[in-house]
């Protein structure tokens, strides 16, 4: 049982107030590579539980990054709460514990939405652009979330053709994604971190609203020290660069989420 404080009760006067409710964690709905998702006794909410498990190359490489779940939970929640203040709707409701968070129930749009500011990873490989080259404009690309197919790249026409998202939803997703990029780029730069690229996911609420879901963390972003260009993200695990935990801790420290 958890006490949750973040529900808004609309008062008869038209205003709203915070109310305390008790929430019960029910059966596990889904176990992903980095998180578990649980049902709750509130039909509008799930609880996500962040694990230390790390995978790469569509699960072919497996490992553990000690303490990652705690850092990713805090970081994702903190960034989403800042974004809410910027008018970007997210699934974040309330952090319950080191690893658990209440989120709004959504149906995930089966797309990985990727923005790149600097060439790296699969972009560098696919287009023969040296890693670290600044791109003349940010790029937006989509991959279809389908492990069996290895998350293939997919374009707007293909997305609407197979019904993965509607044209209207894609317009909302693109618009929100560029706003998120502007926000995150500026935020991380203040911490002397370059936001090289990132992957986000969106969900649809039962009333049809598109909101930011999943997580934003060093698992899902490439973050480089702006001075040394040292990698402070999951590429340290993907590429066996060592100091993996230290990289996550360094980002969390710069964000003020953990002490020196
Ligand atoms: P990529 O260069 O491998 O395509 O990755 C682009 C960005 O997306 C990078 O920040 C890492 C992130 N990403 C994920 O979050 N999940 C994934 O499964 C993959 C392949 C990439
Ligand atoms: N989510 C990807 C996987 O295991 C890993 C990655 O971030 O590269 O497959």
Number of strands: 16
How many structural domains does the protein architecture include?
Answer: 2
Largest β sheet strand count, sense and barrel closure: 7 strands, antiparallel
Individual helix count: 6
Classify the helix fraction into a percent range: 25-40%
Q: Determine the mean pLDDT.
A: 94
By CATH, the topology of the largest domain is D-amino Acid Aminotransferase, Chain A, domain 1
Bound molecules: thymidine-5'-phosphate, aspartic acid
Short description:
Helix content is 27%, strand content 37%. With 260 residues, it is α+β, with helices and mostly antiparallel strands.
What does this structure look like?
With 260 residues, the chain is an alpha+beta fold. Helix 1 (68-85) runs parallel beside helix 6. Helix content is 27%, strand content 37%. The chain folds into 2 domains: 2-106, Phosphorylase Kinase, domain 1, CATH 3.30.200.20; 108-254, ATP-grasp fold, B domain (D-amino Acid Aminotransferase, Chain A, domain 1, 2-Layer Sandwich), CATH 3.30.470. It is built from 6 helices and 16 strands. It is globular, with a radius of gyration of 18 Å. The protein has helices spanning 68-85, 121-127, 156-162, 167-190, 235-238, 244-254, and strands at 2-10, 16-23, 25-31, 35-40, 45-50, 53-56, 61-64, 92-95, 100-104, 107-108, 111-118, 134-144, 153-154, 193-204, 210-213, 221-225.
């Amino acid at each position: 049982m958890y006490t949750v404080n973040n529900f808004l009760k609309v008062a008869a006067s038209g205003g709203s107030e915070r109310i305390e409710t008790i929430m019960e964690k029910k059966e596990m709905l889904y176990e992903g590579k980095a998180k578990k998702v649980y049902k709750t006794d509130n039909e509008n909410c799930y609880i996500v539980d962040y694990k230390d498990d790390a995978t790469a190359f569509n699960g072919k490489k497996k490992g553990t990054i000690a303490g990652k779940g705690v850092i990713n939970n805090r970081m994702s929640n903190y960034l989403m709460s800042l974004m809410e203040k910027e008018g970007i709707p997210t699934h974040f409701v309330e952090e319950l514990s080191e690893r658990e968070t209440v989120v709004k129930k959504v149906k995930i749009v089966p797309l990985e939405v990727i923005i790149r500011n600097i060439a790296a990873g699969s972009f560098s490989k696919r287009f023969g652009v040296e890693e670290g080259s600044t791109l003349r404009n940010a790029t937006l690309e989509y991959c279809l979330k389908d492990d069996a197919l290895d998350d293939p790249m997919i374009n707007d026409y293909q997305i609407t053709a197979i019904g993965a998202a509607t044209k209207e939803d894609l317009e909302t997703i693109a618009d929100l994604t560029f706003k998120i990029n502007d926000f995150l780029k500026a935020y991380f730069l203040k911490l002397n971190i370059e936001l090289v690229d990132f992957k986000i996911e969106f969900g649809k609420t039962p009333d049809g609203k598109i909101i930011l879901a999943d997580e934003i963390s060093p698992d899902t972003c490439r973050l480089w020290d702006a001075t040394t260009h040292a990698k402070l993200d999951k590429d340290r695990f993907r590429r066996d660069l060592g100091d993996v935990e230290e990289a996550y801790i360094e980002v969390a420290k710069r964000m003020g989420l953990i002490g020196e």
